[in-house]
Amino acid sequence: MTRIGLLALLLLAGCADPAHNLYEGIRQSNDAKRTPQDRAMQPAPDHDSYRKSLESADSK
After folding, report:
1. What stretch of H or E contains 56?
2. How far is CA 40 from CA 6, 26, 34, 44, 49, in A?
3. Continuous segment of H or E residues that includes residue 60
């Protein structure tokens, strides 16, 4: 039974995107430090928007 649980855990860990998780963790940490007014005026981009902006900057 524990082998099945361990196997499931390893499969789920293999599907995770560490760069995405790291970016989202840092973004949430930084958002927690900002005031609600700052968050409303300049929301931080999500990871997908950030990747698209990097890819468009690389193509220029």
Report:
1. helix 47-59
2. 42, 18, 10, 10, 17
3. none
Contact criterion met (CB below 8 Å) for 3 and 30: no
Express each pLDDT in 1-12 by its tens digit: 788 877 777 777
Average pLDDT over residues 42-46: 85
Nearest-angstrom CA–CA distance, 49 and 54: 9
Please report the DSSP string for 2-51 in residue order: HHHHHHHHHHHHHH--HHHHHHHHHHHHHHHHS-HHHHHHSPPPPHHHHH
Written as one letter, the residue type at 55 is: E
